[in-house]
Specification:
This protein is an alpha/beta fold. The protein has 26 helices and 25 strands. Bound molecules: iron/sulfur cluster (SF4).
């Protein structure tokens, strides 16, 4: 069979949702490239997806349903193959059994963003709502950042990512796109080449993106709000604030200016660990560059004060009026741009608002019966999991392990690989990849709505998430029109009820550009609050229940885990270039590039510990400790330690990974995982590896 090129869409948990061109030959794929004709992807994809054949045809792909007959946690050796009918019958029987004993809320369908396709990701909610199972507070990634952005702007959208190419100054704040979202760098490169644009990166360590920057600011984790306040102080004091713009488009600039009076660079320098000159230099550069584009990442929101931090940064373009210029403004995410009606996919018409909501980031406390989470309700005694690997990705993983080890917990995991979570399951079902199923994809970084069709037959006996949900719904007696449709019909109906052309009439290239007008995307026709203004005065009460510690105006909110003499270091568990959460952490080229679990430690800190480059070091806190190898690295403050991941648990000497140390405390004001807000101690590691 000759090689052909087929279109697809990258489904992974990344804002770019790249349009793909996939080499296909004899039922296998070859190289994967970015679609050259799509103006955001522009022919570029990250290296891990370019080598997707490694993952797609990995010898460890699950291919048959499995029932566990051995101990939890061992892996495939503890399982025996069973038929699909037997597997689905058993899952349905177990869910029915526990629901009869404890009530339906004892079942917790649990998912996240292993795929970003709407049908295969969110369809679990249709089953959840039809059966009145416990709901899931989707807090683990974007809850804090969403809250911060909503406080000021009022809607989850911003200036199209392609406009970066028209900017004179790009500020990448709290993200590392060179490693995690390569397309941003494409557009930055155009701006630098064609306009001589400057790149500023704000990140607690010298990332691959910071390596390429004209200026890198490395504040202590959790102090970005202070930096943003001091920048605004300078903007007001030195005449860079656009008072005319603010009078027309913001709520209370006078009160903001008064509030910022005491938050000068000296104040911020004490909090952030930056020098006053660094803060002043950046503020002046930002102030005199009208076409300045802030690309906000998720990193600096993964902190107890993350929403307040993101809010503070989002205020900058409203002070200078950069929103009014082409190439100016900011983008956090455009996922709210496309108004899709998700009732059919998610079964929203069946949602019973009295069913309880459990926080996905607190799966450890939930499964170990923490009354702050389950209240007077029943314990969770059954989990049905798709698209996530909480044994590794969820915080406070010591508790997560204890929870999954419970003898009275039934677990079904539908997965592509025998992950750590699947290894704890009673039933494991083999899942298709995006190349083997159909889906619909919006994006965070751009404005395209895309359809990705199956281009390969399923591997082995793999079934899509949607097919499995349908199979369970039938056995459980769940009723909803969405269960009667295949994935293409669901996509088609969802598009049509949302006012888009259906599948038949969808453009042949596979995408529709939903980019709004300049006035709309720059909010010149009004921000998304009822008064049409950008809000410097945040209404946190309207956003979340835990608002009492959040001040109305942008500020440094000192609720972080800032350590003490016993835990003097600040740990940031940052994403690596070659893994994406735990996707790709089992492909040979990704493992080869990343090497081994490693802590980046300042050379002075290493010397004080009596350690050299490459030494084993134990990192710990009140939740436990892990052993990694240290790398001497001077691109961070001495108090900061970086461990990139996410590595599998077995890659660590003691079989449990970095999230043993991170906290399941909810960020303010409505939850959110605080992965980069962890104080730790470091000590020389005794014994041999
Ligand atoms: S950059 Fe992101 S969206 Fe694009 S191919 Fe890589 S993981 Fe997928």
């Amino acid at each position: 069979m000759p090689l052909d090129i087929v279109r697809s869409v990258c489904p992974h948990d990344c804002p770019s949702a790249c349009a793909l061109e996939v080499e296909r030959i004899d039922g296998r794929i070859g190289r994967v490239r970015g679609a050259a004709s799509q103006a955001y992807t522009r022919g570029v994809v990250c290296a891990k997806v370019a080598r997707y054949a490694e993952r797609q045809h990995h010898p460890a792909r699950l291919s048959r349903p499995l029932r566990r007959v051995g101990e939890k946690g061992i892996g495939e050796a503890a399982f025996e193959p069973i038929s699909w009918d037997a597997a689905l019958d058993e899952v349905a029987e177990q869910l029915t059994r526990v629901a009869q004993r404890h009530g339906s809320e004892t079942v917790w369908p649990y998912y996240y963003a292993g795929t970003m396709g709407l049908v295969q990701r969110d369809g679990m909610n249709r089953l959840r709502h039809a059966m009145r199972y416990s709901r899931e507070h989707l807090s683990i990634c974007s809850m804090l950042s969403d809250a911060g952005w909503f406080a000021g702007v009022g809607a989850k959208r911003g200036v199209d990512g392609r406009e970066i190419a028209k900017s004179d100054l790009i500020v990448v704040w709290g993200g590392n796109p060179a490693s995690t979202q390569v397309n941003v760098m494409t557009h930055i490169a155009i701006a630098r080449k064609e306009r001589g644009a400057k790149l500023v990166v704000v990140d607690p360590y010298r990332t691959a993106t910071a390596e390429q920057a004209d200026i890198h600011l490395a504040p202590l984790p959790g102090t970005d709000g202070a930096l943003a306040c001091a920048v605004m102080h300078v903007l007001f004091e030195e005449g860079y604030a656009d008072r005319d713009y603010m009078a027309r488009h913001t709520d209370d600039p006078k009160a903001l200016e008064a509030h910022l009076e005491a938050r000068d660079p000296a104040w911020a320098a004490r909090i952030t660990g930056l020098s006053e000159d660094e803060i002043l230099g950046f503020a002046r550069l930002y102030g005199r560059t009208k076409r300045s584009y802030i690309r906000l990442g998720y990193g600096f929101s993964r902190s107890r004060n993350g929403a307040a931090q993101l809010f503070a940064v989002s205020c900058l373009p409203a002070v200078t009026g950069a929103w009014a210029y082409e190439g100016g403004g900011a983008l956090y995410s455009n996922l709210g741009l496309v108004p899709l009606d998700l009732a059919l996919i998610e079964g929203l018409d069946m949602l019973d608002p009295t069913t309880r909501i459990l926080d996905q980031s607190r799966i450890g406390p939930v499964l170990t019966g923490d009354r702050r989470d389950i209240g007077d309700g029943p314990p969770v005694t059954a989990l049905f999991i798709q698209n996530t690997n909480p044994l590794v990705v969820a915080p406070e993983s010591g508790l997560v392990h204890r929870g999954f080890a419970r003898a009275d917990l039934f677990v079904c995991v539908h997965e592509q690989f025998m992950t750590e979570t699947a290894a704890m399951a009673d039933i494991v079902l083999p899942a298709t990849t995006f190349l083997e199923h159909d889906d619909l994809y919006p994006a965070g970084a751009h404005s395209y709505l895309q359809i990705g069709r199956a281009v390969l037959p399923p591997h082995g006996e793999c079934r899509s998430n949607h097919e499995v949900i349908r199979g369970l719904a039938e056995r459980l007696g769940a009723q909803h029109p969405g269960f009667a449709m295949d994935a293409v019909e669901l996509i088609d109906q969802t598009l049509q009820i949302s006012g888009f052309p259906g599948v038949e009439n969808f453009p042949e290239e596979g995408w529709i550009d939903c980019c709004p007008s300049f006035e709309n995307s720059h909010f010149l026709d009004g921000f998304a609050h009822a008064d049409g203004k950008f809000h410097f005065r945040a209404d946190w009460r309207a956003i979340g229940q835990e608002h009492s510690q959040l001040p109305a105006f942008p500020d440094h909110v000192a609720v972080i885990d800032d350590g003490d003499p016993d835990r003097p270091f600040r740990l940031v568990a940052a994403p690596s270039r070659s893994f994406l959460n735990t996707s790709f952490n089992n492909t040979p080229s990704s493992i080869a590039r990343e090497g081994r679990p490693t802590a980046l430690v300042h050379p002075l800190a290493l010397a004080e510990l009596g350690l050299g480059d490459g030494a084993r070091v134990r990192i710990g806190n009140q939740r436990g400790s892990v052993v990694v190898h240290a790398r001497a690295f001077d691109g961070l403050q001495k108090r900061v330690v970086i461990v990139e991941g996410l590595w599998p648990n077995h890659a660590f000497e003691e079989g449990i990974g970095i999230n043993l140390l991170t906290s399941a405390d909810p960020g303010l004001p409505r939850g959110g995982a605080v992965f980069h807000d962890t104080s730790v101690w470091l000590s020389p590691c005794e014994g041999q590896a």
